[in-house]
Amino acid sequence: MILKDMTVMEVLQKYPATREAFLKHGMGCMECMAAMNETLEDGARMHGIDLEMLLKDLNELASQNISLAEQEG
User: The organism sits in which domain of life (predicted)?
Assistant: First the structure.
């Protein structure tokens, strides 16, 4: 499950398919330095995005995509 205190990069590394949700919500700076340490909550606030909607979309995509850790395990 993706939570608000996870970093953007952490989510992208674990669930690559979530890139689509970040783009949908206007968070196209996924490769910027802020993505390394910025939590989803911080990113949503900085971009004026509804955090609950972002989390909903991220979790929907993540549930359809097996995480890299689960594939390796």
Answer: Bacteria
